[in-house]
Design brief:
heterodimer, A: 385 residues, alpha/beta, Alkaline Phosphatase, subunit A, 2 domains, eight-stranded mixed β-sheet, two-stranded antiparallel sheet, 13 helices, 32% helix, B: 483 residues, mainly alpha, two-stranded antiparallel ribbon, 4 strands, globular
Chain lengths: 385, 483
Amino acid sequence: MSKLIPGRRNLLKAGAASLFLAGVPIAGLAKGKPPGSISVIILEGGMDGLATIPPIGDPDLMRMRKAISPEGYLPLNDFFGLHPSLKFYAQLMARGHASAVHATAFPYTKRSHFEGQNMIEGGGLSPFSEKTGWLGRALDLADVAGRSLSLDMPLILRGHHENDNFYPASIRGSSRPKANLVNMIAMGHKMDAAQIFTKIARKSEENVRVPRDPASLATYAGRAMAEADGPVASVIRVNNFDTHANQVEEGNTDAGRLARQLVVVDDVIAGYRRGLGKAWDDAIILTLTEFGRTVAVNGTWGTDHGYGSVGLLAGGTLSGSGVIADWPGLSKKDQFEKRDLMATIDYRSVCAACLEKALGIDHDLIASQVFLQPDLPRVFDHLFA
Amino acid sequence: MNNQFTMAQKIGLMFRYDEDVPQDMEGWIEQQLQAPSPALGIAKTGASVTEWPDELQPNLAKRAGMWRRYRALKKQQREGKNGQDTEAARQANRHENLMQEKDEHKFVQRNAYGADQVKLRLTSFWANHFTIGNTFDTGQLIGHAIDEGILAKLNGSFADMLYGITTHPGMLTYLDNVWSAGERSEEAKNCRRKPDCQAGLNDNLGRELLELHTVSVSAGYSENDIRAAAQVLAGWGIDLGEELSTMRKRTGGNNHWNAYKKQWAEPGPKKVMGQTIYAGRSGLRQLTDFLASHDHTINHISIKLCQHFVSDSPTKAQIESIKSVWHQSNGDLHAIHTQVLKLAINAPDAKFLWPMTWLFQVVRLSGATYFKGWENTHNYNNKLMHTKKVFEELGQSFWSLRQPDGYSNDKAEWLSAEMFERRVRFAEAIYVNGGTRRSANKIMDRIGAAEQTRALVASVGPSPKDQFITLMCSPELMGLEYV
């Protein structure tokens, strides 16, 4: 049952991350820069929360998933431990700059990647119900235009038509297009396409080289956000959390696919810390994943699609460190549909609290206009009080 | 554009700069659907177009052998043995034993030079529908799956294609099935007696077989159905790196495309969406046949086909007409494709083109040599980028690490400044480095460009390069609507 384990360098190259920077204040339009910045790390594939922050104090954990629980966890308190890959994150926790929310999820229980990803980015009430994303709508409320640093514009940032993306090309034999040529081409196109060509013209003077590995992207994003007129939001996407097989290595529960991906997450958070510098004090970083994974191990050293997972938060804005949870338990009767970790905290509330802190918008406004759920509970005080 | 080029843009890759343009387009469609599909390309820049050499198109057994050899040399490299730990040895190992770059290269060449443009477009549609992302060892297999699992099966039934691609080692590896074992299988039973042994069900392929490849979530199946599908699949496929002796022992043969490990299979009948599926090797064919003819499958894929070829927002009538042919023909792909293509050429709407489709069309219309010859796949060229890099900058590749839902057929997903900037820049790069054989004006005359396109191209002044870029990025050549 052995499987090729690619070296970490290869994986970083292959497991391409992409960065989206957003929320550039528009001169003469913005109400002034929001109080902080918000960065979202999207973990595609469904991260296993139970291995990332193992509830070591729950007697059912070792009974049900000994084969894949990291033996070398770092104890956080009597009940929760931390995966050994998250070394930098552990240091942040020790300094009161990181927290985790456990047994949490968006209200989506059907276990499809594609519906789930649409929910966590769109932030609507059901999959595919929204054409814009929750972060894009929030940036609209805060009156800042978005910009993303990737080839495509991620759903989470879609909102304002001024939103824009940016991912410098490197194509032999071509240079950045001339603004006047692109403007002429734009004139031949219909509305939406014309607008896009106009955007190319607008930025055709810029010439920036941007790194493409996740940690450097995070540093780059952090630096940009730390600038006085820099963006207020960024999104980094890290894929490959769909650990159906070889979540751990045979005979070493601290290694394997999940361990490698968590190192990437740790590096991304460290990259942000490095890049943000002093702006760290006003920053909040949070992870987002479409669902957690089954409590039971599936027989290929992995886990299948589940429900509740964990959210990792970091930043100088947090009021302290801890694992915030209303622990549902792991026994069969406590599981969601007798297979998954139950979610007891609506992760949209966590996203709303981060938006409230970073953008200075009222919770009620976020609840009704961003998440379209006026009675969304407010958890702000648990994180930032 | 004149009728011929409008059709070739929508359902093909455009007539090459020196290719005869047919008059009877319905006849052309039929002839294209039946066209032989040799992998055409060039050995080096300036050489004439010929068929790719056999030795660059190895079969599965050879690919598996190369993969085992690659891994053995990698091991020696890690251990510093036999001089394998030099950069030259590492490179030689990659170039000799890995197929990905050669396959990608063959794919672009075939799309640039192929005389079977309609089949190549259909191939891309289905290769995307049955996405095999580049993870683990699938890089060695994706090209084979596209050629033998899709292109070679375009004129058979959908049921045959579905079964073929579901059992292809590329798919079985990408979605983890090669490691899955039924919970009551012999393997799982033996395993439970040993400490730290793992053998059990992995539902990844079972889930996507239902959600993406066939009925889609609209069918309202349950987790139990997904599990049952995974149980039917348990036992299928074997790790590409497995030694031949082990493979023979476990599967009773050495054919990776027909590798069924009885010891890993779940005994007893299963029930998927109300259908009883019997135990054993033939159970999978029974399941894929059942799914292939399911109403929800027909509906799901008819919509996708329509959106890809006919219109950015297809009408109900268009979708219904494909569904009805699907039903009448019992899922005969030749009949279904014919209907889709007929609809496409009779629908007046512009149809937005994927980045790679557009790139191939620009290359064909202009007669550029934008891709290196097969003798130079791995060699640096001052002007022509590695194919892998071309795809990376384009933002679309069948060899990328991506999710199993593949690339979107929805125009909105592709409308972004960076995506459009890529088109401007690739048009420039093709003009500057590709040695184009036709100017913007010559191309416009040949395709019968619209007055608006001519006016747009004229508006940018006398520079032939600017004119070329403008033509290729005009609404007409991008498949977008006019102002």
